[in-house]
Every structure is written in C-alpha cells, then in structure tokens.
Design brief:
With 187 residues, the protein is mostly beta strands. It has three domains: 61 residues, SH3 type barrels; 61 residues, OB fold (Dihydrolipoamide Acetyltransferase, E2P), CATH 2.40.50; 57 residues, Nucleic acid-binding proteins (OB fold (Dihydrolipoamide Acetyltransferase, E2P), Beta Barrel), CATH 2.40.50. The protein is 0% helix and 54% strand. It contains no helices and 16 strands. The radius of gyration is 21 Å and the shape is flat.
C-alpha cells in the first residue's frame, strides 16, 4: 500500500480492476478546501491514458512489474512469438499487446512487461528507434530538400510511413516507434 505522497512517475498501481502506471502527477493545494493530486494514468493492458484526481492521503495498492528482455522470432496465425533472452523460453502474444507492432523485425530486441505476482505478460515495448530498410518508394529528386513535402514509403516489415522526397528505395532509415514517423537517414 502507498499513499498519494508516494506517487512518482512510473509507479504502477491497481485502480478500477486494472493496472495503471503514473505518467504524470501534480500535487495541488488550493486556498480553500483539502489538497489533492491530479494524475495521468496509462493502462498497461490497453495503453489508454486517463485523467484522475485523488484526494491527498488516499491509500492505493501498488503492483510490482518487471521488464524482461526478449527477442522477436516470427509472426504467424497464433500471434507474435518471442523468446526470453535469459531463459530461452518462448511465448506467443497477440498483436494488441504490442504497440506499433508493424515496426517489429525478426531478431529485434524488445522489453516484455510482466506482472510480477501473477507472471503474466501485460505489454510489449519496442525500443524508441528502429533501423529499417525501404523496400519501395517513388524515385527521389536530387536537391529537393528545401520543402517539408513527403511521400509514402514501404518498409521491410510492411509498414508504410511518410518520408522526405530525397529518400530513395533500398535506403536504410531510422524510425521513431513511439510516433511512427521518419527520424533520419542511416549511413
């Protein structure tokens, strides 16, 4: 058990029969009335972010979660198959548990978040940036770097993102997995 005084970013709590992590919090002490804590909570199961206000001093149940490194092996009809990097056990997860799963490449390292008490996987986090090759895009125009105009490009994982006009087919680029946006060209 913890109180609102123990709140910090990243703390995992049980709230409304679900597991949430605290994304942001703010202690508010108005001139009139009791103090309270405004929070933004992110569900570990659905990824949905909600706003909630707790009265100051309220007790909440904390949950222990663990991040374990896994390697993505392959995808088939049963889901996404991952292997624990330390014990070499394989697990199969559904696509809804992996945010931005269109950027997963075979052999890529990811973190699987487990609920420590029940040993159940809750979520899969990709690294912030992935390096992928472009398999198809329209030909680039040399010298067209002055405008912010973009064109669609298909990546080796099958995902389609917008890239600048000067990017050509078979080039390797870095993609931000949090937003799904082109970040830079890799030399």
């Amino acid at each position: 058990m913890a109180t609102t005084a123990d709140f910090r970013n990243g703390l995992c709590i049980e709230f409304n029969n679900d597991l949430y992590t605290i994304v942001e919090f703010q202690h508010v002490k108005p001139g009139k009335g009791g103090a309270f804590v405004r929070t933004k909570l992110k569900s570990l199961k659905t990824g949905k972010v909600i706003d909630n206000t707790f009265n100051s001093g309220v007790k909440v149940t904390t949950a222990r979660i663990e991040r374990r490194p896994h390697q993505f092996l392959y995808k088939d009809d049963l889901g996404f198959h991952l292997m624990d990097s330390s014990s070499f056990e394989q697990i199969s997860l559904q696509g809804e548990m992996i945010s931005q799963n269109e950027f997963l490449k075979e052999g890529q390292e990811v973190d699987v978040i487990y609920h420590a008490e029940t040993e159940t996987p809750l979520n899969v986090e990709l690294p912030p940036f992935v390096v992928l090759q472009i398999t198809y895009t329209e030909p680039g125009i040399k010298g067209d770097t002055a405008t912010n105009t973009t064109k669609p490009a298909t990546l080796e994982t099958g995902a389609v993102i917008q890239v600048p006009l000067f990017i050509d087919q078979d080039e390797v680029i870095k993609v931000d997995t949090r937003t799904g946006v082109y970040y830079e060209r890799v030399k």
